[in-house]
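Narrative of activities, Objective 1.

The group set out to show that a structural description can be obtained from nothing but a protein's sequence at a throughput compatible with the screening campaign. Below is one input-output pair from the validation batch, recorded exactly as produced.
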Amino acid sequence: MRQGRIIKGIAGFYYVHTAESGVYECKAKGIFRTQNRKPLVGDRVCIDVISEEEKTGNITGILPRRNALIRPAVANVDQAVVLFALSSPKPNFNLLDRFLITMEQQRVPAVICMNKTDLVSEKETGEIREIYAASGYPIYFICAETGDGVDAFRVSLQGKTSTVAGPSGAGKSTLINLLAPHAGMETGEVSKKVQRGRHTTRHSELIMLDSGTYIVDTPGFTSLAADCGNVAGKGDLLPVEPATLEMFFPEFADHRADCRFRGCSHLQEPGCAVRAAVEDGRISRSRYENYGQIYRDLREKKKYDKSGRRSIR
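Output recorded for this entry:
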C-alpha cells in the first residue's frame, strides 16, 4: 500500500504521483461507485501496485479532503487564480465577477490575474485596478508572452496549490508553460471573428512548480462562460438566493448594515448605504452594476424554476 496524489485523470484512468516511485496509472476500485464517490485531481489517495515495471495500480482509498470544488472539479486547493485577458479577447467583467462569486460560494480565496498587458495602455490597467480596489481581491497584471509582471505573481503561488480558472483565450496554457516549462501545455490562437480562444485544456492536471507549490490547469469554464446572460441555461451560478447575493461582494460588507431597511436589495430602496458608497466612489460602479444584473438574473431564474417555463413580460 502506497500513498500519492492524483495529478491527472483521463477516461477513467488516474495518474498518481508518489514521492518514492514516481507516477502510476491507476483505476479506481468499484467500491467508490457504490459509495457514490469519485476520485478528483488533487486527491491524496492510497494505491495497491499491480506492476512495478509497468507502473500500474488500483486506487483503494481517498484520504480526507481539505476541500473539494464543484467548478472546477478538483480537491485540496488553497486558492483560485481567476485569469482573464486585458485584450484579445476583451474582458467580460460580468463573467469575471461570476467567477469570483463561484469561488466565494465554495469558500476558496481568489486571486485576479489580468494577462496581455502588452496590448493595453497603463491607463486601462489603472482603471481595472480601481474597479477591484475595494473588493479585497489581490490583482496582478502580467504578460505571459514576455514574462512581464510574472515574478511578482509567482510569489502569490508559493507553497500553495492553486487552480487556474478563466475563459478560453485568456492565456492559461501560455502562463503555465512559463511557470513550468516541463508541462508543455498546448496553446491555441484567439479567433478574430468571435474573440474567443480554442479550448486547449481537455482535462484537469496538477502540475508541480517546485516542492510544495502546485498549479491545477483545468478546462475552460464552458458551463459558466457559454452564456452568462442565459439565466435558465448553462450560465447559472451554483445555487444562490437573490437575497444572499450581497454576501459574495466583499466590498458591500462595510456598508450594508447602515441601510435604512433590513433586507435591502441595494437596487431601489431609499436610504441604501451601498448605493451611497457607489455614488461617492467607495464601491466600484462596474461591480455594483454587475451585482444588479446578476441579482435580476437570479430573480428571473427563480420565477422560471417555479413556473417550469420562462415568465412573459
